Amino acid sequence: MTASTSTAEAPAGLLQQARALLIRTMTFYRDDPRTASWLRERLERIEAPLRIAVTGRVKSGKSTLINALVGAELAPTDAEERTQVNTVYQYGPEPRITAYTPHGAAQNVPVTTLDPGTIRDLQRWRPDEISRLVIDSPSPGLQAITLIETPGVSSSAVKETGRSALAQILSEADAMLYLTRHPHQTDIQFLQSAHELEVARRAPINTILAFSRADEVGSGGSDAMPSADRVAELYRNEPRVRSFAQYVLPVIGLLGQAAATLDADDFDALAALARLSSAEFENLLLSADRFVNSTTPETVSTTTRQDLLQRFGRFGVEHAVTLITRGAGDLKKLRSALLADSRLNDLQESLHQQFVERQEALRARSVLMAVEMVLRANPRSGGRQLRGEFERLLANAHEWDELRLLSALRSGQVRLPPHEREAAERLLGAFGNQRHIRLGRRPDAPESELSNRASDALLQWRTLAMDPMRDHVHREAARTVLRSCERLIADTSVRDTAG
């Protein structure tokens, strides 16, 4: 290629385009310090870990599940709803707590360790005194994501401030994990209202719905999880839920927290309980007082029993002991079995696949939502060009279409024959966004091989998209994969030109 020939460049991705629009919007509102500062914060967050709001109705198990996901007991868990302020759990090399007032002033709370009791006391402050807590923790579980715990959707804190939890979530988070014991009309209405903005309606790709106390479904006991699975399947296919949630799954938050924080002392105590006869153990579990105050076995102290019951719950203690008697004979095996049975592994995999692996699409969504909120709240003359660019980005955000279809394939909302599903997921980027991975080829595959593979895929999915024997849903799915193939073809053309 000669020096006078321009080098072909691939078109900027959605996040790059959204970021550029955010900067132009910030420049347009530079004479409005409050708006410009708010937009600057959103610009800075693009480089920070993905922010996931953990929200839901009062006492849906938000704190418990946060502890399970982090793998440490940070969020305080109480019998009553105590969270009054948004609490951000983020990675930091040293433990630190920062409290923010509604006016933005920050105050560091001196701590050497992160004690849930200290956090609990701060969370009980009135929202007009402390609007946000930021907890820095060196927990590895927070290196890839930041978790934001909100007050319960119907809590007194939300009503007292006059600002809904919805506004906070839209402002603070890239994605949402919504917890409920069982979906009620309140949950559906809240989640629908979270998708009122144009960006949210165009890209309902940031929500996972979890039944966080699956062990309580139906009559509880051994039939609870199968019942919860059936309920989850019903809601996955419910049109209103499908319009905003990418996945619906059951999880036992308390069991997940116990598994994630299980240590050698816990295992020794549970193993001692497992050595009791069935009759003795069942007798212990007749009431909490009997379990805590019993002296059988003598090696398990009252303090240990209280801790086990608080962290595991009655169901968790019984389940852990059952697993030990069935062969989970060491700490590693028990933790693995508890994590699997709690479905925490499933939730973590869903969070990783739906959110972490596709975080650029989610960040672009957050950026464009911020731009939309500003253009709506503070319209001014001369903003037509910004609005036009905003609309163009929304109309061409294929990355969002890919995410929606991947979610639909994984949740069973769209069903394809196994060979078609595998090919579709690969072309949509489920196993990696690199071109050779999408095309199922080695990293060192020559350009000619990648080009031929992309052309073959294009022809296959064009045929499926036009198949009159398929219904509208499946033809639309095929068209989404087809557009992904077209992008791969375009990418190949750009590389050939550049070469």
TrEMBL record:
GO terms for biological process: mitochondrial fusion. Its main location: membrane. The keyword Iron does not apply. Gene3D superfamilies: P-loop containing nucleotide triphosphate hydrolases. One of its GO terms (molecular function) is GTPase activity. It is found in: Membrane. It comes from the Bacteria. It holds the Pfam family Dynamin_N. The keyword Membrane applies. GO terms for cellular component: membrane. InterPro entries: Dynamin_N (IPR045063), Mitofusin_fam (IPR027094), P-loop_NTPase (IPR027417). Residues 52-191 form the Dynamin N-terminal domain. Keywords: GTP-binding, Hydrolase, Membrane, Nucleotide-binding. This is Dynamin family protein.
